[in-house]
């Protein structure tokens, strides 16, 4: 089995240590992987539900969903005005069930309390089902509380970041990461163990691709997106306050948690190098980002027959964004290459 890189960040110095742990040797005490049933949470992402806050609900579910639960965006479910709407689809609700699947629609699933209530209901049902098979509940409550708290702190930090209150943002991101980092990584590993056990999805995925995240960069699980975004925003907040060393640590952490697959994390590294007058490092960061944007553009250029209009529009948006970023980075890379050639001649 493949090893995973876990980044341990220890405040206040935020020193970084990378531990390479084999999946088959890593013991998870706080989480245990359930066997089926498989549960799908399909969030309506029609324009009406988006206006009601569906994307925020989708993001929360992606971050908090326990193992054995797939989170996806979906088409309109004809409950306009009652959004955000989450359709709960259960396959093999219990071993003794005569029906192989069932579905129900939850209205107005908005905000942390509503999302937590939905997940509590799902976890309780799953615990009853797996108890008949002699296994344990999918997620230890204390760990999910830590993760949920970290996620909520990241939302507060995002608001400060968008308001350019960078010092407040840095402190809030630090608290969010400290609270949610460990349970997020453990939970994601448990999801992947569950996926291998049942042959299903990751337990937190934005679509049918196990590794896809978003148009900003694929290749790492959607359940870790909030953590990577927090690190990137913290990096840029620190750069605004000229804390280059702290920004470098955050940028490096973002590349590790994103499994080296988020182009914007590499842009963060390039920005750190630019702030420290490291032209070679900046160029290398931009080249890495450009290669990843090229991959995103190609992935979203593949036709998806049968997909609904919002999904097609979203794919087109992501493809266009990746193409625009790659084009802009190409100009910057060419300029840096000229600068480096000039420096070589002078030397």
Automatic annotation (TrEMBL):
Annotated stretches, region: Disordered: 191-218
InterPro entries for this protein: Thioredoxin-like_sf
Q: Which UniProt keywords apply?
A: Signal
List the signal peptide residues.
Answer: 1-15
Question: Organism's domain of life?
Answer: Eukaryota
- Name this polypeptide is given: Uncharacterized protein
- The scientific name of the source species is Stephanodiscus triporus
């Amino acid at each position: 089995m493949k090893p995973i890189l876990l980044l341990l960040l220890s405040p206040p110095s935020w020193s970084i240590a990378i531990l390479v742990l084999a999946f088959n040797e890593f013991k998870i005490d706080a989480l245990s992987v359930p066997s089926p049933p498989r549960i799908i949470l399909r969030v309506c992402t029609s324009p009406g539900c988006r206006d009601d806050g569906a994307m925020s609900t989708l993001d929360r579910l992606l971050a908090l969903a326990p193992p054995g639960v797939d989170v996806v965006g979906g088409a309109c479910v004809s409950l306009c005005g009652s959004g955000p709407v989450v359709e709960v689809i259960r396959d093999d609700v219990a071993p003794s069930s005569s029906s192989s699947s069932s579905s129900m629609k939850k209205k107005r699933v908005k905000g942390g309390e509503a999302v937590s209530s939905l997940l509590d209901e799902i976890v309780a049902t799953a615990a009853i089902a797996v108890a008949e098979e002699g296994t344990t509940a999918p997620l230890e409550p204390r760990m999910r509380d830590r993760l949920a708290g970290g996620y909520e702190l990241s939302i507060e930090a995002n608001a400060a970041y968008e308001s350019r209150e960078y010092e407040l943002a840095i402190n809030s991101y630090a608290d969010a990461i400290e609270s949610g980092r460990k349970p997020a990584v453990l939970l994601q590993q448990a999801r992947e163990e569950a996926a291998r056990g049942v042959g299903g999805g990751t337990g937190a995925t934005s679509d049918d691709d196990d590794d896809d995240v978003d148009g900003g960069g694929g290749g790492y699980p959607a359940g870790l997106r909030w953590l990577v975004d927090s690190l990137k925003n913290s990096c840029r907040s620190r750069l605004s306050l000229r804390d280059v060393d702290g920004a470098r640590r955050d940028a490096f952490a973002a590349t590790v948690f994103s499994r080296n697959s988020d182009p914007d994390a590499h842009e963060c590294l390039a920005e750190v190098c630019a702030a420290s007058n490291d032209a070679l490092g900046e160029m290398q960061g931009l080249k890495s980002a450009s290669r990843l944007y090229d991959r995103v553009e190609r992935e979203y250029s593949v036709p998806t027959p049968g997909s609904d209009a919002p999904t097609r529009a979203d794919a087109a948006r992501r493809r266009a964004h990746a193409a625009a970023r790659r084009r802009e980075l190409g100009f910057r890379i060419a300029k840096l290459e000229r600068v480096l050639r000039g420096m070589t001649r002078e030397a």
